[in-house]
Automatic annotation (TrEMBL):
InterPro entries in alphabetical order: Split_barrel_FMN-bd, TR_PAI2-type
Pfam families registered for this protein in UniProt: FMN_bind_2 (PF04299)
Name of the protein in question: Transcriptional regulator
Gene3D superfamilies for the chain: Electron Transport, Fmn-binding Protein, Chain A
């Protein structure tokens, strides 16, 4: 990910918040195989675990599961079993994996929004505003459906993923007139056990987390005013959200600049 200073977000709590608000990650692996593509990617919902939510240094762990029938999972299983046959018992891939999380609030930016630069010089081009987080780390997999370790990991991961999305994503808290959350225990245990045999678990110990909010911070006040007004004038929900984020990020940039000047 290209992280120019105007757009880079360095606060881990902010990056963690974007991940949790957009837990469907694009999980990418690079595995040499005679049977599957070298590079594979799947959309998978993740759970992010950290011990200290306020920490500016703790990277944490991502947990998820994927269908055993997924060709990417098959390549992973093939790789691990091949190494095990050669005496290597590790279930951790040697190559880093990549997971990308992207905010749903993104939009094309027309040069017409640049109400200062366009009339003055016409030296403007279109761009795209968006926010995203990329995570690199080492992935360990739970592939033996008959192992107690695999069963315990999947129980914990499925319960955490379901609870988070029922209570946070859906707002099913059972309070203030809201419905109660669905729980894994609501389904028959034999059915859940069958489902568990059809998935594998994965745990990524994060080694690097980077992110950006590309929201017109590189433009001057006149042009960013035009971008904010342009998005508002679209009259759409995404336009209103884009205008709000552009304004918020511009103010944050001003505060950071003022802080540096006062040091």
């Amino acid at each position: 990910m290209y992280l120019r200073n105007d757009h880079a977000e360095k606060s881990l709590p902010v990056l963690r918040n974007l991940v949790r608000e957009n837990p469907l990650g694009q999980f990418t692996t690079v595995i040499a195989s005679p049977n599957f593509p070298l590079v594979q990617c799947s959309h998978i919902p993740f759970v992010l675990d950290v011990d200290d939510e306020s920490s500016e240094t703790e990277l944490g762990v991502l947990r998820a599961h994927m269908a055993r029938a997924n060709p990417q999972a098959k390549a992973i299983i093939e790789e691990i079993k091949s190494r095990q046959a050669a005496g290597d018992t590790s279930r951790t891939l040697q190559q880093d994996v990549l997971v990308m999380f992207t905010s749903p609030v993104h939009h094309y930016v027309t040069p017409k929004f640049y109400t200062t630069t366009k009339p003055a010089t016409a030296k403007v081009v279109p761009t795209w505003n968006y926010a995203a987080v990329q995570v690199y780390g080492k992935a360990t997999f739970y592939i033996d459906s008959g192992a107690e370790e695999t069963s315990a990991f999947l129980d914990r991961q499925i319960d955490a993923l379901s609870s988070f999305n029922e209570e946070v994503t859906m707002g099913y808290t059972g309070q203030n007139g809201r419905p109660s959350a669905w729980k894994v225990a609501d389904a028959p245990e034999p059915y859940i056990n069958i489902m568990k045999k059809n998935i594998i678990g994965l745990e990524i110990r994060i080694e690097h987390m980077g992110g950006k909010f590309k929201m017109s911070q590189e433009t001057g006040d006149g042009d960013s005013d035009g971008v904010i007004k342009g998005f508002k004038d679209l009259g759409s929900e995404v336009g209103a959200k884009m205008a709000g984020i552009v304004e918020e990020r511009r103010e944050l940039k001003r505060q950071q600049k003022a802080g540096r000047q006062s040091e």
